Amino acid sequence: MKIVAVCGMGIGTSVLLKMNAEKVLQDLGIDADIEAADIGVARGAAQTAEIVLTSEELAPEIGDVPARVIVIENFFDLDEIHKKLSAAVQ
Amino acid sequence: MAINLAEELSSITTNATASDWREAIRRAGDGLVAGGVTTEDYTEQMIAAVEEHGPYIVIAPGVALAHARPSESVKKGGLSWVSLASPVEFGHKSNDPVSLVIGLAALDHTAHIEVLRAVAGILSDPATRSGLDAAASAEEVRSLLARAASPK
Predict the structure, then answer these.
(1) Which of A30, B21, B97, B117 falls between 20 and 30 A from B57, CA-CA?
(2) For A12, which of B61, B104, B117 is closest by C-beta distance?
(3) Which residue of chain A has the CA closest to B69?
(4) Mutate which of A4, A6, A7, A9 to disrupt the B interface (most B C-beta within 10 Å)?
(5) Residues of A in contact with B65 (CB under 8 A)
(6) How many CB atoms lie within 10 A of CB B68?
(7) Count of A–B CB contacts within 8 Å?
(8) Residue of B nearest to A23 (CA)
(9) SS3 for A5?
(10) Is A36 helix (H, G, I), strand (E, B) or coil?
(11) Which of B49, B54, B61 sits opposite A74 (nearest CB)?
(12) B116 vs B37, residue with greater confidence
């Protein structure tokens, strides 16, 4: 499974999101490749991904992609990420 | 091995005052400049990032991770820490108001991953977080961070 974690610049928030999502996926026993990307790269990367993780502000900027876009509110809240990711992969 | 964030922070400011989000980011930028991490241009780039993309840098309740792209304005990787005397609104739907602004500068897209991991680890812990919010001096922040980094 391919997942893209998206933020504005691709160095800060998306990297945090990637790290926490990896923890969650490990718990769920799901093998996934998570890429951290900035918003420009993300539109392309999302074409071949199944899931896009991002914040509420950036979700509309990703535009029309085949991937499922999941909005995370608190990037430090593993429970929130767990809940949303596990619902999406079922 | 856990990173000691206290050693990674180029500058720590507590009880900073800022009248709005731009000024709050500017305080974090000042810290990066004072620590020899970035030039003043980088501060303006951090503000421009929010103007362009909205307050997405407010990544958790009360916490903003201010940053911009790696560029010539970055001399080395580094972090600054600014806790605000009075929280300011960034315009974020669920995580406002912000009481802690962390400034981040990185030389490339892969540097600083371990530092970010340490930041996430520390701020995910509610007890550590409330201690840090209440810390009145840079020394206090450093000692809390050092304690959080040492094996339990």
Answers:
(1) A30
(2) B104
(3) A9
(4) A9
(5) 12-13, 16
(6) 29
(7) 79
(8) B117
(9) strand
(10) strand
(11) B61
(12) B37
Q: Do A39 and B112 touch (CB under 8 A)?
A: no
The 10s digit of each residue's pLDDT in A23-46 is 999 999 999 999 988 888 888 888
Question: Which of B56, B93, B112 minimises the CB distance to A7?
Answer: B56
Q: Determine what percent of chain B is predicted with pLDDT higher than 90.
A: 64
> DSSP string covering B36-82, please?
TSB-HHHHHHHHHHHHHH-STTEEETTEEEEE----TTBSS-EEEEE
* Catalytic (active-site) positions of B: 67
ipTM of the complex: 0.75
**Nearest partner of A55 among B50, B82, B123, judged by Cα:** B50
Percent of chain A residues past pLDDT 70, beyond the cut = 98
Q: What are phi and psi of A54, to 5 degrees?
A: -160, -175
pTM attached to this predicted model: 0.86
**pLDDT attached to residue B118:** 84
Q: How many angstroms separate the CA atoms of B147 and B144, rounded? A: 5
Kindly state the average pLDDT of the residues B47-63.
92
Q: Backbone phi, then psi, for B27, in 5-degree steps?
A: -60, -45
Distance CA(B27)–CA(A49), nearest Å, equals 38
Report d(CA A83, CA A25) in Å as an integer: 11
- For the sheet containing A51-54, what is the strand order? A33-38, A2-7, A51-54, A68-71
Contact A74 B104 (CB under 8 A): no
- Identity of residue A15: V
Length of chain A: 90
